[in-house]
Automatic annotation (TrEMBL):
<keyword id="KW-0067">ATP-binding</keyword>
<keyword id="KW-0808">Transferase</keyword>
<dbReference type="GO" id="GO:0000156">
    <property type="term" value="F:phosphorelay response regulator activity"/>
</dbReference>
<dbReference type="Pfam" id="PF00512">
    <property type="entry name" value="HisKA"/>
</dbReference>
<dbReference type="GO" id="GO:0000155">
    <property type="term" value="F:phosphorelay sensor kinase activity"/>
</dbReference>
<protein>
    <recommendedName>
        <fullName>histidine kinase</fullName>
        <ecNumber>2.7.13.3</ecNumber>
    </recommendedName>
</protein>
<dbReference type="InterPro" id="IPR003661">
    <property type="entry name" value="HisK_dim/P_dom"/>
</dbReference>
<dbReference type="GO" id="GO:0030295">
    <property type="term" value="F:protein kinase activator activity"/>
</dbReference>
<dbReference type="InterPro" id="IPR050351">
    <property type="entry name" value="BphY/WalK/GraS-like"/>
</dbReference>
<keyword id="KW-0418">Kinase</keyword>
<keyword id="KW-0547">Nucleotide-binding</keyword>
<dbReference type="InterPro" id="IPR036890">
    <property type="entry name" value="HATPase_C_sf"/>
</dbReference>
<dbReference type="InterPro" id="IPR005467">
    <property type="entry name" value="His_kinase_dom"/>
</dbReference>
<feature type="domain" description="Histidine kinase">
    <location>
        <begin position="45"/>
        <end position="197"/>
    </location>
</feature>
<keyword id="KW-0902">Two-component regulatory system</keyword>
<dbReference type="InterPro" id="IPR036097">
    <property type="entry name" value="HisK_dim/P_sf"/>
</dbReference>
<dbReference type="GO" id="GO:0005524">
    <property type="term" value="F:ATP binding"/>
</dbReference>
Amino acid sequence: RKLAEELLQHQMTVQSELTSARNRLRLAHAEAEIRAIFAEQMIGIVSHDLRNPLAAIKMAAGLLERTKLESRQERNLGHIHHSTDRAERMIVDLLDFTHARVGSGITVVPQLIDLHAVVARGVEELRQVFPHRVLVHRSEGQGACSADPDRLLQVLGNLVSNAVNYGEDGSDILITSSFETYLIKLSVHNFGEPIPL
């Protein structure tokens, strides 16, 4: 009987400790979620607030463009434009991340576009971002379609960035915009080892 009482007491102690551990885990999980939401909200706030000084820089650069500049100054101004454009894209990415995590999701605004023209413009911008790599754009089929040009350029930028970072140095990067039956296709092909999963 004494052994049975000891076993019962031990079982009750174990159950109590297990319940306590579950409660602590539940509390820790709730706190982690609160911290994650707060961090994402802060990212959204900071990203939004960065737009104002960035807009001021772009406006000042635009005013400088109207003045007579030496070739070196024009090059520097080009770098300013290029850097602010990149910063704007980064801010958009951060805001999209925040909206996807704590908001209503990423907004897509389809419109009638020329797929090949949009991709060509994106490739030209990316050539400025990655001047040490050769980016080749190939278009196949018609160009008119309904899509969100900003989202297309966002996807293109991410794919090309991965190709540059993980592809074989010195190799060309092939960007293809094409039409298939009821489908538009954007692909980026690079050489080298696959991205590790």
